[in-house]
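Researcher: We plan to redesign the surface later, but first we want a full-length starting point. Tokens attached.
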């Protein structure tokens, strides 16, 4: 497919619960994190539209805060879902223009993606109907119990001397199994699909339990091509991740910059 026209969907309707506050508005080199994410796509000729899906319950506030900057880059803002990511993406699909050949869905909190990775993904999308980036998992992966247990011992002597109150405060989970990590990868975004394929996935597949769009396509029995991702394409999830992404992107925190450069 020589003429690639990609509509980019950026789900931004989440509550950032694990971050503990306003994640998308955090400063990255003088601009909000959300804007940095959008900027990765603005200079790509293959991109025909950028769609940002905002929280429906604070839509006006979101638009007042980010609308001018997003509009400057030609991005449109639509209402997302209230509960699941899949609901947000499904609503955003309605704003995909008719001339689009592909849809790329990219996490709003992945501002560090490189242009080189985008080029690889876009080229692969010319020949594969579904393409995602992913990074190999090098850590040892263990499945643990759902319930938690106290760290109490069966040592009656220790209990008699020390008591059990202190140990009851130390809780954890038990290992169920160690998962073989051979060929395991951690999926990233953007995940790119032919328009007809992702529409069919949302029309025919129950999204319950799916944590990314590729999962829906897999449930259709369709093949998903995986390309090597990159560490800098990390997702900012917790507050501590902010310092990491700033270091990766070579940006200082606003309090570390001279006052005249905080813009």
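Model: Full-length starting sequence:
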């Amino acid at each position: 497919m020589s003429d690639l026209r990609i509509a980019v969907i950026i789900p931004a309707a989440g509550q950032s619960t694990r971050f503990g506050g306003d994640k998308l508005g955090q400063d990255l080199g003088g601009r909000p994190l959300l804007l940095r994410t959008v900027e990765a796509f603005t200079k790509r000729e293959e991109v025909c539209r950028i769609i940002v899906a905002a929280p429906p319950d604070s839509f006006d506030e979101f638009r007042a805060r980010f609308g001018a900057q997003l509009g400057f880059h030609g991005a449109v803002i639509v209402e997302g879902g209230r509960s699941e990511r899949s609901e947000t993406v499904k609503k955003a699909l309605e704003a995909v223009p008719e001339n689009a050949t592909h849809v790329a869905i990219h996490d709003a909190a992945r501002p560090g993606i490189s242009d080189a990775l985008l080029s690889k993904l876009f080229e692969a999308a010319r020949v594969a109907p579904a393409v995602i980036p992913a990074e190999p998992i090098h850590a040892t992966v263990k499945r643990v119990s759902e319930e938690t247990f106290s760290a109490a011992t069966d040592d009656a002597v220790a209990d008699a001397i020390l008591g059990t109150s202190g140990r009851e405060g130390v809780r954890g989970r038990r290992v169920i199994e160690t998962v073989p990590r051979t060929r395991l990868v951690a999926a990233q975004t953007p995940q790119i699909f032919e328009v007809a394929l992702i529409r069919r996935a949302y029309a025919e597949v129950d999204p319950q339990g799916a944590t990314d769009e590729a999962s829906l396509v897999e449930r259709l029995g369709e093949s998903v091509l995986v390309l090597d991702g990159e560490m800098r394409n990390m997702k900012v999830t917790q507050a501590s991740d902010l310092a990491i992404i700033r270091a990766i992107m070579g940006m200082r925190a606003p309090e570390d910059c001279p006052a005249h450069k905080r813009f």
